[in-house]
């Protein structure tokens, strides 16, 4: 892959954009938001070019760039993507402009311009790290992005969040740091059990090459897995997510839950399965059990939530349970389903969070009980919310259905009990989505003070929500482009694990 | 050279030792400048003294550094009758010390528009609050002897990291410590606290020196020589008549050195001395004393008593674990910025010890790198603390820092960067340093090494909580009092802060060259 270093460009462009936005002189502060949006769109364009250049039948890692960075530690500045990483990068670059647009008036019309510039600059910095963490092809570089990513999120929550933002920000950073530091021990150990040398942290050097005793491999697996389980998040280390999501701005919550948390499941697939196949198989029963608990527990807590943002966070915990289950089922159907689910979930969560955000912006409350009958006031908002909710509960024809079905079908081939219990999660999903819709949008028309009736979605908000709803339908009826993209990567990962499908599958068939 | 390594215990006739002047030139320059500084103190007019002293000190330190980099690096030698070993680690640490000293002197010279250094009292000997003190203030007295004192301390440190026998090491320890005791007591504000800190530091320091001396005596009894090479040879031969003296000797000598780095349970002086000392002195002391003491620990452990390490390694590992845990946990409860950084420095000493105990050349280079990274960030952090004022005195209480990010975005931003480095967040020097110190422990330290690293990362998480709470305070909290301001630093402080901040970023983003240098010099000359 010669020519432009596309991935590096995708790292540099948002960073430059962030610097420009942040350093804009006070006289031209109005330009901050358009520049931020333009930067994110440019990054999206680069991501689409990268997708166009990606050859589904080609090498495992493509668009590669490799430069020596810290040879003393065996660290390279190495980028490259497989299908899964690329699909997540494309998702992140699509969601970022949407979030910027959704956050357009987050700070109010007469906000302090410096504060507004900081807000948008931080989101662009976050974009760089989001692309970087998926595009890294070196474990150390991945770790750097994994940890550095926390800083912009920390400030986004702490500076711009809700009333309990300090608590939420500190809780978020502590959970993440503990996970990250445990992983650091595993990262250090990985180098010494791997082939070593000046490129000892490259994925290619490590995949299938990690030595050491069975016990050492299991410890390293745990080091990585705990960090990713916190990130994903899985029960019982999920408690930071509802707080962080409820206290952050909707746009931040989308990037946090929709994209950043994917690093957890992405890491399980890439590192846990790729580097420690034996240990992964050893841990599978426990992981699958935890995943099933997450599915049910997240759904139950979502049903019990009184705060709409917390509710969406809990639904994500449930959905992450499905993704993890699909990854550790180690069948090609479930793997493809999980990879697709990561993308679908990003859009579904974005829809729910952003629409909830629009709702909250109109009424100023996150409590579900404060609403009712809003369908009659804001019909477009209500309709959009219903579509996003239906996608989230995996209605056939909408995107999540395909991925959830693949995950369950693939898991059923190997762990019938897990798939059976997880299916209950779908029923519960119907409950939490439809109950919420009923409580918020149906019922008698609410009364408002004369002249202060909330308006329905404006043009900007429609622009925000249209691409998301389009993605539901597109990926629901025609998931082939994404499946074609992720399938080779899933196959290769499963080959590393040495897992063979117990029964004929259909996902691979559809990919050809 | 072998003759120089094994000096006969009782020379028959007096014989002048050979001196490799090129190798020791930086030390001579520093001590020479210090002596000139004393003369300046005696003869220069009072009003010009500050300027002359600062200029002279900086010129001396920079000259020493230039000589070190241009000449001494090519003169690896064991010289002065085997008492000094100018080798890779020694030169690296001496260079580091000189840079820290330059930065430290730059911050100490801060006047904030006054006539003399802002940090130092006009008259150290006056009773706090007495008429004599007020009169000294009015008369424009100034303790500009702080600068020659600093130079003497630097001289001791340069000698400490190169000392190749226990007697030289002890002399260096005293030469570096005594000026620091005095400097600690010279704070302009909160005089009583400063004097108390000075006395505490002195008493505990003297105590630990006694430990070291006793250990040195026992080792002399064991090996028949105080030379580190001779001790190493005696341990390897294993035929000493007094085998029982070895372990107590090693333990006592190590205690003396561990006191200087502030390892638990020998750490109790650290918070008091850090809090009481003039803030720029604290920064210099924190950075440079750690470099010097870890240099001496490395030399004693790797050159002298390495062969017996199995007997004492676990004990020191326990100290490292204790240091990390106590330093991290107690930093959570601190309400004073300087005490907080003192406990954080204790935790960092624990992290560095993890690297020391790897017993591999990669461990040495990791420790060297860590010392550079930590020192740069520390000097800059204390320089910033010196800027934050409330009603004329330093606002070191945490609550006074609330909302500082809103009022002084640049100062607070740099401080956050330094905090992120202390927390070990990637892309800052702190992360690279932790990686450099922990990786050898995992690779060569066996199970104990891995356990220490696990404790280390958990302690890091605790300290990170402290730092992030500070960021919450500075950025997410409304300011309480409106009288807290950050003074505008002079060009000298600005240079020190900038070097610290830029170094922190460079060592985080492109650490390759410095890591390579640390790796190249990590072999001791023996």
From TrEMBL, chain A:
Keyword set includes Secreted: no
Organism, as annotated: Knoellia sinensis KCTC 19936
Cross-referenced NCBIfam families: NDH_I_M, PRK05846.1-4
Gene Ontology process terms (BP): ATP synthesis coupled electron transport; electron transport coupled proton transport
Entry membrane topology: Multi-pass membrane protein
A GO term from the CC aspect: membrane
Keyword Transmembrane helix in record: yes
Gene Ontology molecular functions: NADH dehydrogenase (ubiquinone) activity; NADH dehydrogenase activity; ubiquinone binding
Origin: domain of life: Bacteria
The protein, known as: NADH:ubiquinone oxidoreductase subunit M
Pfam families noted in UniProt: Proton_antipo_M
Protein keywords: Membrane, Transmembrane, Transmembrane helix, Ubiquinone
Database matches in InterPro entries: NADH_Q_OxRdtase_chainM/4 (IPR010227), NADH_UbQ_OxRdtase (IPR003918), ND/Mrp_TM (IPR001750)
Principal subcellular localization: membrane
TM annotation in the entry: 6-24, 36-54, 84-107, 119-136, 142-160, 172-193, 219-241, 253-276, 282-304, 311-330, 342-361, 373-395, 415-435
Domain NADH:quinone oxidoreductase/Mrp antiporter transmembrane intervals: 136-428
Compartments it resides in: Endomembrane system; Membrane
Similarity comment text for this entry: Belongs to the complex I subunit 4 family.
């Amino acid at each position: 892959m010669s020519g432009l270093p596309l991935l590096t460009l995708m790292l540099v462009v948002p960073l430059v954009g962030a610097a420009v936005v942040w350093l804009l002189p006070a006289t031209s502060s109005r330009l901050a938001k358009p520049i931020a949006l333009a930067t994110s769109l440019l990054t999206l364009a680069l991501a689409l070019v990268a997708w166009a250049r990606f050859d589904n039948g080609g090498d495992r890692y493509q668009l590669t760039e490799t430069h020596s960075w810290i040879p003393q530690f065996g660290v390279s500045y190495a980028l490259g993507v497989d299908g899964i990483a690329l699909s997540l990068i494309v998702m992140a670059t699509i969601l970022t402009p949407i979030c910027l647009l959704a956050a357009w008036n987050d700070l109010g019309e007469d906000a302090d311009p410096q504060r507004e510039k900081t807000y948008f600059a931080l989101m662009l910095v976050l974009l760089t790290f989001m692309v970087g963490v998926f595009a890294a092809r070196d474990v150390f570089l991945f770790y750097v992005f994994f940890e550095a990513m926390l800083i912009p999120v920390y400030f986004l929550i702490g500076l711009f969040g809700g009333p309990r933002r300090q608590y939420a920000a500190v809780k978020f950073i502590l959970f993440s740091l503990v996970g990250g530091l445990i992983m650091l021990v595993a990262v250090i150990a990985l180098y010494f059990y791997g082939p070593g040398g000046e490129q000892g942290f490259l994925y290619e050097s490590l995949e299938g090459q990690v030595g050491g005793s069975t016990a050492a491999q299991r410890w390293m697996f745990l080091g990585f897995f705990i960090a990713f389980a916190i990130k994903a998040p899985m029960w019982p280390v999920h408690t930071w997510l509802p707080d962080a999501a409820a206290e952050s701005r909707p746009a931040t919550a989308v990037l946090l839950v929709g994209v950043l948390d994917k690093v957890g499941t992405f890491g399980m697939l890439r590192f846990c399965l790729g580097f420690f196949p034996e240990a992964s198989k050893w841990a599978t029963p426990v992981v699958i059990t935890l995943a099933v608990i997450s599915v049910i527990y997240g759904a139950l807590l979502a049903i019990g939530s009184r705060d709409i943002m917390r509710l969406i966070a809990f639904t994500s915990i449930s959905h992450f349970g499905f993704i993890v289950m699909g990854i550790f089922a180690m069948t090609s159907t479930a793997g493809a389903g999980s990879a697709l689910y990561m993308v679908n979930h990003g859009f579904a969560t974005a829809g729910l969070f952003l629409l909830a955000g629009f709702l909250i912006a109109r009424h100023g409350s996150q409590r579900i009980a404060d609403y009712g009958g809003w369908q009659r006031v804001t019909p477009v908002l209500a309709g959009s919310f219903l579509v996003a909710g239906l996608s989230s509960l995996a209605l056939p024809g909408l995107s999540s259905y395909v991925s959830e079905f693949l995950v369950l079908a693939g898991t059923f081939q190997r762990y019938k009990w897990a798939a059976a219990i997880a299916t209950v999660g779908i029923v519960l999903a119907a409950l939490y989505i439809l109950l919420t819709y009923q409580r918020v949008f149906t019922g008698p028309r609410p009364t408002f003070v004369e002249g202060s009736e909330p308006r329905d979605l404006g043009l900007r908000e429609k622009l925000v929500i249209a691409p998301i709803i389009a993605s539901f339908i597109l990926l629901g009826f025609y998931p082939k482009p994404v499946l074609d993209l992720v399938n080779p990567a899933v196959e290769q990962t499963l080959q590393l694990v040495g897992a063979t499908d117990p029964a004929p599958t259909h996902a691979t068939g559809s990919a050809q | 050279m072998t003759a120089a390594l094994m000096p006969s215990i009782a020379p028959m006739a007096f014989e002048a030792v050979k001196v490799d002047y090129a190798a020791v030139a930086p030390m001579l320059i520093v001590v020479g400048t210090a002596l000139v500084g004393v003369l300046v103190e005696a003869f220069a007019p009072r009003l010009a003294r500050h300027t002359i002293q600062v200029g002279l000190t900086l010129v001396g330190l920079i000259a020493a550094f230039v000589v070190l980099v241009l000449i001494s690096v090519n003169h690896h030698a064991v010289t002065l009758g085997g008492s000094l070993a100018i080798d890779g680690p020694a030169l690296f640490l001496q260079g580091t010390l000189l840079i820290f000293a330059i930065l430290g002197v730059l911050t100490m010279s801060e006047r904030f528009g006054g006539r003399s250094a802002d940090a130092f009292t006009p008259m150290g000997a006056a009773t706090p609050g007495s008429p004599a003190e007020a009169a000294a203030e009015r008369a424009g007295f100034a303790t500009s002897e702080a600068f020659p004192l600093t130079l003497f301390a630097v001289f001791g440190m340069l000698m400490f990291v190169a000392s190749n026998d226990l007697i030289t090491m002890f002399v260096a320890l005293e030469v570096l410590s005594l000026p620091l005791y005095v400097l600690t007591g010279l704070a302009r504000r909160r005089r009583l606290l400063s004097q108390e800190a000075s006395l505490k530091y002195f008493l505990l320091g003297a105590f630990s020196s006694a430990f070291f001396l006793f250990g040195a005596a026992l080792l002399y009894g064991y090996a028949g020589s105080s030379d580190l090479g001779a001790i190493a040879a005696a341990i390897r031969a294993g035929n000493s008549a007094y085998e029982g003296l070895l372990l107590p000797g090693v333990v006592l000598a190590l205690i003396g050195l561990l006191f200087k780095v502030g390892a638990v349970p020998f750490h109790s002086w650290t918070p008091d001395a850090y809090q009481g000392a003039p803030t720029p002195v604290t920064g210099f002391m924190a950075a440079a004393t750690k470099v010097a003491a870890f240099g001496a620990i490395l030399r004693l452990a790797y050159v002298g008593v390495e062969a017996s390490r199995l007997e004492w390694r676990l004990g020191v590992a326990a100290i490292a674990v204790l240091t990390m845990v106590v330093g991290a946990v107690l930093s959570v409860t601190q309400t004073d910025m300087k005490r907080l950084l003192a406990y954080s420095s204790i935790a960092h000493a624990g992290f560095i010890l993890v690297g020391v105990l790897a017993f591999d050349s990669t461990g040495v280079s990791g420790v060297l790198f860590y010392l550079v990274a930590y020192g740069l960030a520390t000097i800059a952090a204390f320089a910033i603390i010196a800027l934050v004022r409330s009603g004329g005195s330093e606002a070191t209480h945490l609550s006074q820092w609330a909302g500082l990010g809103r009022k002084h975005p640049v100062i607070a931003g740099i401080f956050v960067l330094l905090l992120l480095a202390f927390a070990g967040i990637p892309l800052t020097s702190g992360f690279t340093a932790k990686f450099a110190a922990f990786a050898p422990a995992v690779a060569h330290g066996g199970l104990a090494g891995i356990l220490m690293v696990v404790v280390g990362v958990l302690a890091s998480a605790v300290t990170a909580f402290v730092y992030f709470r500070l960021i919450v305070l500075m950025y997410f909290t409304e300011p309480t009092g409106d009288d807290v301001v950050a003074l505008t630093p002079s060009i000298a402080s600005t240079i020190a802060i900038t070097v610290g901040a830029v170094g922190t970023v460079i060592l985080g983003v492109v650490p390759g060259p410095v890591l390579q240098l640390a790796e190249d010099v990590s072999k001791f000359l023996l």
